[in-house]
Specification:
Helix content: 25-40%
Low-confidence stretches: 1-11
Structural class: alpha+beta
Number of helices: 6
Number of strands: 8
Mean pLDDT: 93
Distance between the termini: 48 Å
Strand order of the largest sheet: 4-3-2-1-5-8-7-6
């Protein structure tokens, strides 16, 4: 008999196989892109049509993680498939899936420059136009112990109307319509955090106006290759 939880079982026996493979793929990218250290950080995907969430397991080496290690839960936090314990930040993912219909994937990192600013309890202003991928600026949520509902609520409030937020003394949370977009925002905001940090070290950074950021964010709505003809 095939155990559907066994990593050696046939792939078609697994629920959310596509999403679980993506979690594994992008978990490795978190490491290779230097956005996390060790087993820190987490990522998830919400399949709204099926009402199922795939999320990285708690305290697991991303380079050794397999699709069968990824737990699958329903929107009420009930584990539907998988033997591994979900990420300790499950509540922080769920609060967005329950209350933000524009968000179907979340990436949480401990990237160096974003975390540096988070430990200074500073937001990231629009020092570079690429901040616009997340919103007109990236705020900083009040500190709360990791893995708590309080942290989830703080992050949710501080990310209102945006796609990224710093978590005080902790790291960065980025979100998107899919995992590719959420990861891209996490990577871009880390770049913007580094630019902001370095400009502060050398002088008084020039910050773009709200009007310019409104224009930038409008242009980003049609940025990329979506809908392009061959």
């Amino acid at each position: 008999m095939i155990d559907k939880h066994d990593n050696n079982s046939l792939g078609e026996q697994m629920l959310q196989l596509k999403e679980r493979k993506l979690i594994v793929e992008y978990g490795k990218k978190l490491v290779s892109y230097g956005l996390i250290r060790g087993t820190g950080g987490n990522l998830s995907i919400y399949n709204r049509e099926e009402g199922l969430i795939s999320i990285s397991p708690s305290g697991t080496d991303y380079l050794k993680t397999k699709p069968g290690d990824i737990p699958v839960l329903d929107i009420n936090n009930k584990i539907i498939e998988g033997k591994r314990k979900p990420s300790s930040e499950l509540d922080m993912h769920m609060v967005f899936y329950n209350h933000r219909e524009d968000i179907n994937a979340i990436v949480h990192t401990h990237s160096v420059f974003a975390t540096t600013l988070a430990c200074l309890k500073r937001e990231i202003p629009p020092v570079h136009y690429l901040v616009g991928f997340a919103g007109n600026r990236v705020g900083c949520a009040e500190y709360a112990t990791f893995g708590t509902k309080e942290l989830a609520e703080n992050a949710f409030r501080s990310m209102a109307g945006r796609k990224a937020v710093l978590l005080a003394n902790h790291g960065l949370l980025a979100a998107g319509a899919d995992l590719k977009q959420a990861f891209n925002i996490a990577e871009i905001i880390e770049f913007c955090a580094e630019v902001y940090y370095r400009t502060q070290c050398t002088g008084d950074p020039s910050v773009l106006s709200d009007e310019e950021m409104d224009l930038v964010m409008e242009k980003f709505k049609t940025y990329g290759q979506a809908g392009a003809k061959a």
